[in-house]
Amino acid sequence: MKAKDVMIKSPPTLSPDNKIKDAIDTYINHQVNCIPILNDDNYPIGILTNTRVFESLKSNSTIQTPIRKVMETNIETINESTSVKKLYNYPIGRLLILNQQGQFSGIVTKINLIKTVHEKLGEKEGELSALLESMSNGVISIDSKGLITICSQKLKEKLGVKGQVIGKGIDELFPELNLKEIINQNGFITEKREINNNRFIINKSVVRKEQTPIGAVAVFQCISRIENLVNELKIVKELNSELEAVIDLSYDGIIVTDKEKVLRVNQGFERITGVKSKELIGKQISDLELITPQLELVEKIHERKEPITVMQEINGDNKVYITGKPVLDDERKVTKIIFNLRDMTELNNLKEVVEETKSLNRRYHSELEELRSKQLDFDNIIAESTKMKEVLQRVRRVSTVEATVLITGKSGVGKGMITKLIHKLSDRANKPFIEVNCGAIPANLLESELFGYESGSFTNAKEGGKVGLFEAANNGTLFLDEIGELPLELQVKLLKALEEEKIYPIGSTEPVHVDVRILAATNQNLWNMTEQGEFRRDLFYRLNVLPIEIPPLCQRKEDIAPLIYHFLNNFNQKYNTNKQISEGAWDVLLSYTWSGNIRELKNTIERLVIMVEGDSILSKHLSGILHNEDKQKEQSDLEINRIIPLKEAKQRVEKDLLKLALNGDASTREAAKYLGVHHSTIVRKAQKFGITLNN
């Protein structure tokens, strides 16, 4: 069997001019942990591992750093016709394969060569058993049927599993691991996961025997409690191939010695110490100052015949825990020593990163909950009447598309609630929802609020400019309430923004592209306004793509009783009362016209809960409230005795109604309620007609 028979063919590669960002994308897209680096002649000049990237980013590198500055150039290449047996002599974990033309054709890893382990397991069984007992990693393995064949006790404790698990299905106990899928994928995956309040780095790999997948193994590196070492690992003779995989997958450094010489070194040891394995294999233990400063540790292990752990600094400031585990023969003589090195400096840094990420997640969660608390509870929408159910059915349909929706209806019918429901049911539900009342903002400020402005574009403009509401709602929904109050000069700019999907901030000649869904609402008859020249017809057509008219409360009598119950319960809870409505009061409430719609009904119930003494709301309590409002409407009847131009008549009617609404000591908000408009409209109209407002 040749190298080309076991190599990974055509793996993803990069050039030395690619950036670290390209490497990260490749790791994610192809699920690999190393990438060969090729020159223009398709010849390998280096290799880049994910560990190398992680270390470079912790230093001064960025994701834009060229790969040539961080790649490993100390690589080994072999011809694809090389015998597999010769591959075992190479000390490094990855070999780059060249074809007969001397060009890159594949890569061989230690996992490709696992099948040879069984030939030597007879003499290494005791060595591997002691090795796994000294490791801090948790191990679980399965056979080809997905049945658990080995599971370390420490891993069971970390995962919160009790009782016997050997022979049980992996999907039954740990469905989130997806370990069985590794066998089908025939691959290798590294992932980070939180299980039972412990965070792990999990390396999952297929186990092969003579190139045939016979199971899978997962190695858990616990990073939540570094000081806890993983306890004994149970080993079965039929699973000796998995034990060799554990050695290569271990994140800790491992070195195996006999009484005099170094026998084996893994990649983790090279990473922690910076010393290549080929520089250590066969060397005398007395020469290994990294492990035995004065041979004291080795001497103590031979003397005590038990594991010993010490702390040592390597390469200046890297703190490393070194645990020596003796392998004893039948006469309790030390035949080998297995050393496990854990880099505490790197793991402590990783712990800090994890804690910082947790803190950031908590802050984002808190902000998200705050935003959610501000959203309307859409379960409060009452729809018992046929007309309102038809409205909600139409809402469900329009929420699935991106077209503009125009919501019409009298003041107080719930237009704002419907717009928020459309947004919540749409694909933009997790994107911004921005609401602007076109009648509440003075005309001279509305343009800057909608479109933003550049620094210095006008007097008192903020330094640095301001982002407009269109841009703030990008990728989300913009709700234009009281769209009928939008000045004509702004209607042109709004139409252009809707047609071209871009805006021009005040003082800027550069367009800002926006992706915004528009929802508009009004209590006015926009078509009549277009007939009178007060609203642009082209803008009306652009907004009126999907019209929804919300019927007034007088046309959906079935909703009145459920709404009363709803508001009564809410205000009883809010004011800690237990008010009940008498039968006579029910008759009055159900027969009343409710010209102010839901807003009037809600305010009436709140007033009754607060003002009525005792727990019973009687019909006599309603006479003053409901009768006075009917009387005010009766007094506002107008008399027409001559023909005048329609525009003049409209202005006179507006002026007379405004004076009547502000008669006595009524505030602007009370007048706005009587006339069914926003209080800012009252202020603007009063200024127009020269009417003095009450303090």
UniProtKB/TrEMBL annotation:
Gene Ontology terms: biological process: regulation of DNA-templated transcription
Lineage: Bacteria, Bacillati, Bacillota, Clostridia, Halanaerobiales
Segments forming a coiled coil: 347-374
Organism of provenance: Selenihalanaerobacter shriftii
Transmembrane segments: none
Domain (CBS) ranges: 7-63
Domain of life: Bacteria
InterPro entries: AAA+_ATPase (IPR003593), AAA_lid_NorR (IPR058031), CBS_dom (IPR000644), CBS_dom_sf (IPR046342), Homeodomain-like_sf (IPR009057), HTH_TyrR (IPR030828), P-loop_NTPase (IPR027417), PAS (IPR000014)
Protein name: HTH-type transcriptional regulatory protein TyrR
All copies of domain Sigma-54 factor interaction, residue ranges: 381-610
